[in-house]
């Protein structure tokens, strides 16, 4: 006697669906109404999301699977499965789209906004005054803009939390004052278009560097970083040592890691034990428990790995990944290196885990692997992003050496000059998405337009945004 799938009881059918890939589930649900209804249940997509997405190290939201609606969960799991298959393939193809975000002026910064159903993208441009523009990622249409009168932006930080009312912090320079404002993306009515709304401000000369929930990290250009809770008005001061050998060691990134705050500067990384915040004037000054330097580099980016299925709360310390773009002081060198370094947590006993003054990570970090790439040209966009799941993007400059000594001067009009273009590189470092021992360059995209000025990368959605000198924005989707 033969059995058909639609004759199985629900428990047995759930076991079958849990063992199927996403394409097989989508094919199977088309065979009969019962399988269509059954495959639309939350438990089916939670099981698939856990076994085929989270446990396989495929980029996904930090929020628990149970927090999404059934429809949203299915959409996210299906998209993540497609993204994982793309990264595991030998190469990746991009779907490209372009739009004009500024009238002739350059795009100074570009950011994806976490949360808000992953809908928003912002650009920062400057005419007479600075402007932040909010774009809908689905149709690339402008939603709203924000231009404070008589002010120029000097820095901006986007909140990495998906559920906080504060979306970003921006430093405004006016003729007689400098202030940092906390902005929310607010809806006056459920059916209205969103607008930027200031919900807090702080008079300070320090620049906003990073934002996580209600915590904002602000830093000067030398040694001091302030952690400010804009809701409770509590502070802590992180004082980095001043090294005369590290010229122009300005702060570029602040990372909120496990019981540690990493202050990343242009030439060094300082690790501070997680400080206790206090209202002014009871604010304490904290000093790093460790520091490291990478020498003369073009950029440093620190990434915190995602929570593991075995430890979804992220209580235990994890390895931190540090992406470094080296700078070669040899003018005749034709290469530069993208290096991946690892900062390992100390082995912690249960008693040690409860201490409050650290240290929590072993310094110095160790180099894991590197990519040697050609470089002979100037680089205007030195942004690079390393995602929590080990994928990274950066811009490789155009190769000026292609033309050699050939000039574009009118006297040599008849001499053909070879063209070179800056290129976006997407790579996967060794891990679950790349089972090789070496990093793999999965995709490249040549820029045939004006030079890029900035980029951002949404690893969860497999989406890259690039701003250019002529105000155009290019969106590349995997």
Report on this structure.
The chain is mostly beta strands and 478 residues long. Helix content is 11%, strand content 39%. The protein has five helices and 30 strands. It has helices at residues 10-18, 22-28, 33-38, 42-54, 70-88; strands spanning 95-100, 107-112, 120-126, 130-136, 141-146, 152-158, 166-173, 178-186, 195-203, 207-212, 215-219, 224-229, 234-239, 251-257, 260-265, 268-273, 278-279, 285-286, 290-293, 297-303, 320-326, 335-343, 366-374, 384-386, 391-396, 423-428, 440-446, 452-458, 463-468, 472-477. The strands form seven sheets. Strands 10, 11, 12, 13, 17 and 18 form a six-stranded mixed beta sheet that branches. The chain has a four-stranded antiparallel beta sheet with strand order 1-30-29-28, with no helix packed on it. Strands 2-3-4-5 form a four-stranded antiparallel beta sheet, with no helix packed on it. A hairpin with a 3-residue loop joins strand 29 and strand 30 (472-477). Residues 350-355 have low confidence and may be disordered.
Arithmetic mean of pLDDT: 86
Write down the oligomeric state: single chain
Structural class: mainly beta
How helix-rich are the residues, as a percent range? Answer: 10-25%
| Share of β-strand residues | 35-45%
Number of strands: 30
Distance between the termini: 47 Å
**Major sheet: size, sense and barrel closure?**
6 strands, mixed
- Identify low-pLDDT runs: 350-355
**What is the number of helices?**
5
Rg calc: 24 Å
Overall, the morphology is globular
